[in-house]
Amino acid sequence: xxxxxxxxxxxxxxxxxxxxxxxxxxxxxxxxxxxxxxxxxxxxxxxxxxxxxxxxxxxxxxxxxxxxxxxxxxxxxxxxxxxxxxxxxxxxxxxxxxxxxxxxxxxxxxxxxxxxxxxxxxxxxxxxxxxxxxxxxxxxxxxxxxxxxxxxxxxxxxxxxxxxxxxxxxxxxxxxxxxxxxxxxxxxxxxxxxxxxxxxxxxxxxxxxxxxxxxxxxxxxxxxxxxxxxxxxxxxxxxxxxxxxxxxxxxxxxxxxxxxxxxxxxxxxxxxxxxxxxxxxxxxxxxxxxxxxxxxxxxxxxxxxxxxxxxxxxxxxxxxxxxxxxxxxx
Amino acid sequence: xxxxxxxxxxxxxxxxxxxxxxxxxxxxxxxxxxxxxxxxxxxxxxxxxxxxxxxxxxxxxxxxxxxxxxxxxxxxxxxxxxxxxxxxxxxxxxxxxxxxxxxxxxxxxxxxxxxxxxxxxxxxxxxxxxxxxxxxxxxxxxxxxxxxxxxxxxxxxxxxxxxxxxxxxxxxxxxxxxxxxxxxxxxxxxxxxxxxxxxxxxxxxxxxxxxxxxxxxxxxxxxxxxxxxxxxxxxxxxxxxxxxxxxxxxxxxxxxxxxxxxxxxxxxxxxxxxxxxxxxxxxxxxxxxxxxxxxxxxxxxxxxxxxxxxxxxxxxxxxxxxxxxxxxxxxxxxxxxxxxxxxxxxxxxxxxxxxxxxxxxxxxxxxxxxxxxxxxxxxxxxxxxxxxxxxxxxxxxxxxxxxxxxxxxxxxxxxxxxxxxxx
Lengths: 330, 423
Fold this sequence. Notes:
The complex is a heterodimer of chains A (330) and B (423). By secondary structure, chain A is an alpha/beta fold. Helix content of chain A is 41%, strand content 13%. Chain A contains 11 helices and 10 strands. In chain A, helix 7 (187-199) links the parallel strand 5 (175-180) and strand 6. In chain A, helix 2 crosses helix 3 (81-90) and helix 2 runs parallel beside helix 11. The longest helix of chain A has 26 residues, at 41-66. Chain B has helices spanning 7-19, 30-33, 68-82, 105-109, 121-133, 152-159, 162-165, 196-200, 213-225, 238-241, 275-288, 306-316, 331-343, 366-369, 373-384, 386-398, 406-422; strands at 63-67, 86-90, 114-116, 137-142, 176-181, 206-208, 230-235, 243-247, 259-262, 267-271, 293-297, 300-302, 319-326, 352-356. A 7-stranded mixed sheet of chain B has the order 3-2-4-5-7-6-12, with helices on both faces. In chain B, strands 9-11-10-13-14 form a 5-stranded mixed sheet, sandwiched between helices. Chain B is elongated, with a radius of gyration of 24 Å. The relative contact order of chain B is 0.13. Classes of the chains: A alpha/beta (330), B alpha/beta (423). Chains A and B meet through loops of A and loops of B.
């Protein structure tokens, strides 16, 4: 992909076409999905900055947790940045997002600043929830981000209810409800999905499949590993979650589908997390270091946006490290 | 001052009360009251020896140093070895579990007996009901007590009622569900809850909570082999902290019996799980003030052993119950009600409950929330000083001193008393 992008990279502000990777579909026509994305250098730089920022903040969270300044449970999403930035790119701030406990990236996209996030983890009053929620419970009322939920799968019926509220008020908005591959086996998901399809609610179910539920791989937990095809009549698609443009276009398509009244959509984003499940999990008892290094080399989300162009990444790197300095001080 | 003509009169009455050895309260130093990090634990040896009255061992000398985690692995090993129809399963159990309680079991007994389940608590417990109704012995694991609630329906409506509704044809006695529960210092809302109160309301369930490795192994083996369904709560903060010389052989501790850990004549302290440590520390603090405490570890929360409690309260006349769960309708509330019902005339003070507050389990405010040794010690003092303070309160109300100002008079009276004692 790097070579393809480099070939098309023109040193001007003209638009760049990025071909999207192949997808699997369920109860959809494959040709309905877009096969390329239009973008330009500024957008690429914007996404690159956003994702690198998230990566830096996750690393900073790791550091403060190891220094015991933050306590509680800390679930980091480095390696999954394309999911957060891609979804944010595909929807507006008027749309609702609700997710599980791996939520720092989403909080950043919805008005969180490093001070607020790290402060929340350390239990300080300037934190997002005034220190009472911790890493898992960060929300924003103004920007319609409903957190940050600790119990696995509990956010799915909540997201469905939010979608009902949207439909009742006849607004042109959607509710993006995220869950993981572990929650894909919870009864709550199927109950909520049934209600959503029955009442044609504007909810996009996004399964962040990072391959492991705590320590159990998807193959050993789910009989049907096509998590996009598990919600019966709800149509689904499996997207490469490390490719930010694939995520963005898929979410845009899903939003249009929902707003046209055809009902909910299920997207499975194949992604990966470099850290363990939480800070108390080393992440190495159920996978090897080589696996993690391989993903870092071949499927890192930030890489898909960086060019082989030499100067631009380094400039961007410098800018980002300048921004990341204050949070390193904390 | 209608009741007393002079100050000397008042002092005479108070000295008479004091001569009956009525206790006066002591304010602990500020260093212990700064709760921002919780009071530091007292340096005490919590390790115990095997109680030979309860446990009859064949090789009493074959002991091994284990913490609760290892003793549970040992117990599961013995259970799996002695009964070939035993199954251990749960989330992430195969590689050893998130707390390393099932390390090595999969390698020894195979994946058809020790296996992982998907992330579905309701499914796990419902599946267990079927498994034991078909004749097996199931030991499911719920990873954290906070996640037991999806399975609440299965526990309350199926596990507890199976024997009753089939008139004994089938039963779920083979279930022993292991749950890692309790505050751990950094758990926050969803890794620290103690859900035993939610289940206390359900007849048909048995709940067992150990305090140290010797108890954990014996109680777990007894729970697995008991003919009734058991929920076995393991205090996760003690997984590594609590170490003892545990007998390596197969032994059981009887269920539905509380244990008196320490004898005393002044006040009865009742607790279970991790709270027993706090009680022991508070009892040590109280000893320095001359109060002899009797400590009871409840062990089986439901059905609880009331005989032991009754005997103790009839002896001491004062009861203090503690647990980490919120105070309203916690386990302490039930035991307190029963105690007052049966032992009212023997009691010198009402039952004192030192428990968590009625809030969700807090994230940063955990040291303020937990019932620690300082709060328990304050509770002991309140119990001991109750009679004197009751008398004083009654007199002050007779002479129409309003409630807010009474503490002032009481502290003055106590001050005079002390002065009188010292002279």
